[in-house]
Each structure stands twice: as C-alpha cells, then as structure tokens.
Amino acid sequence: MKQKSFSLFILIFVSLLALVGCGSSDEENGDDENSNNDEVVITHEMGETTIPANPENIVALEFSYVDALAAIGISPIGIADDDDESRIIAPIKDKIDEYTSVGTRKQPSMEIISSLQPDLIIADLQRHKDVYEELSQIAPTIVLSSLAADYDEILEGFETISVAVGEEEKGQEVLEAHKKRMEEIKEQVPEDEDRVVLPAVVTADAFHAHNMDSYTGSLLESIGLNNAIQDGSDRYNKINLEQVVEFNPDVLFLMEAGEETIINEWESNPLWQNVSAVENGNVFSVDRNTWSRFRGLISSEAILEEAVENLYGN
C-alpha cells in the first residue's frame, strides 16, 4: 500500500513539473494567452489609444504623416490629399504606393475612411480634435500636432508614428540619418550670416508671414537663418505691405498660391521696392506644397537644400 502511494506521489510530482515546464515555455515563446504583444498603447494629444501591433492599413489625415510613413518605408492606404494628388511632392510620391483619397485635410470623408477598414488613423490636433470620437469609432486613432507644429514638434510626431507602426528601431535610424544631413546643410551657412529671412504664403489678396515659431520659420532658424519676425503669439500672420517694410527682411521665400498673387500688385509700389530683399534681388519663389504643407523629415531636407542653393549656390 505504501509502495502504491509513493508511486502515485511520484506520478503527480512529475506531472506538475511537466505542466510548469510547458507554462514557462509558452511564456518564453510569447504564446501565453494573456500576452499583449499583439497590441501597443500610444500616448498622444488626446490621451491614450490601444492599437494593433504593426498596423498595415493606415489612413493619414495630414501630409506630414505621409512624409513620416514614407520615410520609414510604409505606404498609407488612405490620404487626405485635398482631392488633389498633385499635392504629393515628388520625393514622397516615389516612396509610396497607390492610395485612396479620403477628401480634404480640413474635412475628410468619414464614409470613405470607414470603407477602407483601417487599423490606424493618424489625425491632426487643430483640424480633427472635434471629430476624434467619430474617427475613433471607425478605427484606433492617434492625434498629433502638425498644422500648428514647429520643426521640433514634427520630429516628436515622427517618433510617435514610428512606435505606433512597430518601426521604432528603424525610425531612430532614419531620424539619426536626418539629423546628420541637417548638420551637413547647416555647415554650408556661414557663421557670420546676419541676414534675416521671411517665409510667407502669398495668395491673390494676402501675404501670410511665417514667424520664428512656425514650422518653416523654425526649420530655417535651426541652420542659422534667423526669422524677421521674432515675436508675436501667432505663428502665421496676415500682414500688409507697410508691415513687410517694417520687418524689412533681407531674404524672402514666397510660397505662391496661384499664378497671380498680391506681389503682382505690390511690385509697382515704391514701398515694395524699398524692402531689403527686393533691393538686393533676394526674393525666391518656392513650392508651397514642399515648403508649407508637408512638414516632415523628407520635405525639411528638401526645403533647406533649396534655401542653401538659393542663398549660396551650393
């Protein structure tokens, strides 16, 4: 009887060891039923959102997010391209596949977004905070700052996106390469450069100046090109000709909206002719999509390369 009891004890003991061993193996292999490796929690401007790990069907509601995804080798299935695919700049177009337009950035189509069955939506704080709940009902949504962001905030957003899409390591590699390229461009700016610059969007009836805290303004400042507007709470300022004369920029980078702009009207005005940039032939027309709308790593490099080429012929 004792021998049978002892044998039964040994059998139970061995069985328990086997069960423990299997459990440990499952945990080591990530096969535990309670494992959350198939999800990731992302902190963003509207709180925290749990999204599937390595999302594949991504909708981008700002061009800067398209830039970020393209930089790490991912093509979004849907883009808010303002119903105009020509706004996708060449360096980005070369890196992404065909996509579905989901309408304008200001008012994207919920119906089209839903039809794409995305597993991640990337939205902008200023444009989309009021429809965040509606977007979240379609798919997990993260909200970042793009429209109102400066250059540093764009870099922060890029890092968040790389984590969200499961490419944190590659994202860091891309970011380091970007920073290295920016330093190379900065080295082309003379240390004694003291001219002040002013980027602006010019439309048929308005001059929208971008100050030192705007995306383009802060980007140019990062390589030593100081902005003519160093104060003011508004990053984007609609100013008149008299104010342009007052700020008196030495260099103007004009992002033209259409063939005819307010500059055509001002050119016959003596005040315009007295602006330092105009007197010295330092007025440069640049692409609005690249310089204002995209706001990303790829577009930032393109902007600064063009700026340096215009100013120094490098």
Total number of distinct structural domains: 2
What is the count of DSSP helices, taking H or I runs of 4+ residues?
15
Reported for the largest beta sheet, the result is: 5 strands, parallel
Q: How many whole angstroms does the radius of gyration measure?
A: 26 Å
| Proportion of helical residues | 40-55%
CATH superfamily label of the largest domain: Nitrogenase molybdenum iron protein domain
Shape: globular
Straight-line distance between termini: 96 Å
What is the string of SSEs from the N terminus onward? HEEEHEHEHEHHEHHEEHEHEHHHEHH
Strand order of the largest sheet: 5-4-3-6-7
Q: For this structure, what is the CATH class of the largest domain?
A: Alpha Beta
Mean pLDDT metric: 89
| CATH arch. level architecture of the largest domain | 3-Layer(aba) Sandwich
CATH topology of the largest domain, anyone?
Rossmann fold
Going by helix content, strand content and strand pairing, the class is alpha/beta
Percent of residues in beta strands?
15-25%
The strand count comes to: 12
Low-confidence stretches: 1-35
Q: What do these coordinates show?
A:
The chain has about 325 residues and is of the alpha/beta class. It has two domains: about 40-185, Nitrogenase molybdenum iron protein domain (Rossmann fold, 3-Layer(aba) Sandwich); about 190-310, Rossmann fold, CATH 3.40.50.1980. The protein has helices spanning about 1-30, 65-70, 90-95, 110-115, 125-130, 130-140, 150-165, 170-185, 215-220, 240-245, 260-265, 270-275, 275-280, 290-295, 295-310; strands at about 40-45, 45-50, 60, 80, 100, 120-125, 140-145, 195-200, 205-210, 235-240, 250-255, 285. The strands form three sheets. Strands 5-4-3-6-7 form a five-stranded parallel β-sheet. Strands 10-9-8-11-12 form a five-stranded mixed β-sheet. Strand 3, helix 2 and strand 4 form a beta-alpha-beta unit.
